[in-house]
Amino acid sequence: MDAAGSPAKDASRALLAGFSLEMTGKDIPGLDDAAALLPPGTRVNVTFLGNEDLEMRLAAARAVQAHGLVPVPHISARRLASHDALEEFLARLQEAGLSEHVFVVGGDPATPEGPYASSLDVIRTGILGDYGVREVNIAGYPEGHPDIPEAELWAALEHKTAALAEQGLASVIITQFAFDLDAVLAWIAQVRQRGIRSLIRVGTPGPAGIKRLLAFASRFGIGANAMIVRKYGFSLTNLMGTAGPEKFVAELGRRLATDPAAGEVALHFYTFGGLPATAEWVRSHGGEGS
Ligand SMILES: NC(=O)C1=CN([C@@H]2O[C@H](COP(=O)(O)OP(=O)(O)OC[C@H]3O[C@@H](n4cnc5c(N)ncnc54)[C@H](O)[C@@H]3O)[C@@H](O)[C@H]2O)C=CC1
Ligand SMILES: Nc1nc(=O)c2c([nH]1)NC[C@@H]1CN(c3ccc(C(=O)N[C@@H](CCC(=O)O)C(=O)O)cc3)CN21
Fold it and tell me: Transmembrane region positions (predicted)?
């Protein structure tokens, strides 16, 4: 590990300022345990999984707010059964003061459950601002997506950022997690070349069991070959171990420090190993929250 005050540690520290992280609707106990470790105002995304319902999602967002943190509720376009379901969720968020920031994503179902096939469809309803939304977070894919062609992903990113700007809404890009830093940096460069200047939050797994990380990587179509994961800091022959993002974050910080064209970049932690473990990891590596 790098000594305190070393260039690597300083680069991690700079990158960790303004980090955000993610919880599932079920993870209120984990949030309660982690909250004291998180800087006030830290953004906490609340997932929109198929095995959660409206009340669970709202309860989690309220719990985030009650801890002095900022909820970023997810809205999954393909999981919305109707236009009413979208309006009901937004209205419930707004009445509880939880609607300022949202993450709008397409959703994993191969067939939409209602009228929205993509996050752009939800954005194009034009109603987000009516419910107090000020900032819309959208997804980015440094390694592509297993079911969506590359050109379609780029077109979607451009159309979404343009539509949000037209509506006077801020946009932030949160990337799918990745172990391959070169892919992440090359993708950031492409985003900027396309003239998109939004803050990019690089999706980063919190410390977690290697088996668990690999299972999630395989489920979401994320590259994890032997060379990439060795560089990241774990070995495929020791699946019982735990892997943290220390090398990934330090190296990303170092490379961004000499790359002004990358623009504004922060980190977003996927807490596969639990919210408290991620909060402790960030704290011990110098994070200051968003
Ligand atoms: N990055 C993340 O943290 C998360 C990603 N996802 C998944 O990533 C995928 C894309 O979401 P966005 O980036 O918001 O794309 P998007 O909603 O902007 O859509 C981009 C293009 O891909 C198509 N598309 C969307 N979802 C699809 C799917 N499941 N299968 C096939 N085509 C699809 C759309 O029709 C559109 O043409 C979805 O499957 C989404 O559920 C889901 C939850 C979290
Ligand atoms: N394409 C795609 N779909 C997603 O749903 C998704 C991504 N990508 N990228 C990463 C984030 C993180 N995601 C998740 C999803 C589930 C849990 C989770 O803890 N789920 C279970 C436990 C299941 C298990 O242990 O395998 C749960 O209790 O719901 C965590 C993060 C969802 N996300």
Answer: none
Domain boundaries, the chain: 7-284
| Domain 7-284, architecture per CATH | Alpha-Beta Barrel (3.20)
* ipTM exceeds 0.90: yes
Q: What is the pLDDT of residues 5-27, one digit of tens each?
A: 677 677 778 899 999 999 999 99
Beta-bridge mates of residue 22: 45
Q: Could you tell me if 265 and 200 are in contact, meaning their C-beta atoms sit under 8 angstroms apart?
A: yes
What lines the ligand 2 site, CB under 6 Å? Answer: 24, 26, 47, 49, 51, 108, 176, 220, 270, 272
Q: Which of 178, 184, 221 is CA-nearest to residue 200?
A: 184
Q: Is the CB of 289 under 6 A from ligand 1?
A: no
214, two tokens? 């690999």
CA distance 90 to 73: 10
Nearest CA among 126, 194, 117 for reference residue 166: 126
